Each structure stands twice: as structure tokens, then as C-alpha cells.
């Protein structure tokens, strides 16, 4: 049975940052190549395989322009524009102006 010597593992992780710093250029190259590999795999998965899966579907998702829906939207916009253009024409009474009414005068 395999026994793990935790003291050796602890010492290894204590010395790891120093060893990486001593070989910083090599460490940089290893991390750079690792990031290129991971980036390439992600690009392959979501770029190339996704496009080939779309091409296998065929031309099922052909874009068609729905002229009736377009006309309904245009009519709705036209009716809204007509309603909004009439908003500035109506004159409302000012509730803060004094109303011209005759008030009785008080006499002494």
C-alpha cells in the first residue's frame, strides 16, 4: 500500500514558488503553451464544431421577411405618432392662476 509522506509534500509546495522563480522563463513558456492549448481547444469546440453542426442541419433556418407583420408595425407606429403629435395642441387650464371671480368686500 502506498503511504503518502505529508512532510515531503509540504516541503515540496514550500519550495515550489522559489523553483518557479528561478526558472521564470521556462515557467512562462510552459504557462504560455498551456494557455494556447486551452484557447485552441475552446476555439475548436465553439468555433469550428459549432459551424460544422450548423452546416449539417442544412438550410432549415432561412430568413423570410413577413410583410404582414411589418405593415402592422408600421400602422401601429403611425397611429402612435398621430396621437403624440396632438398632445402639444391642447390648452390646459393653469391650476395655479387665480380665478377671476368677484369677492365681496368686507366693511367695518
- Which H/E pattern describes the elements? HHH
The counted number of beta strands is 0
The general outline is elongated
Low-confidence stretches: none
Tell me what the structure shows.
- Helix content is 65%, strand content 0%.
- The chain contains 3 helices and no strands.
- With 108 residues, it is mainly alpha-helical.
Primary descriptors:
elongated; mainly alpha; 108 residues; 3 helices; 65% helix
Outline the secondary-structure elements.
Elements: H1 6-22, H2 24-57, H3 67-85
Briefly summarize what is shown.
With 108 residues, the chain is mainly alpha-helical. Helix content is 65%, strand content 0%.
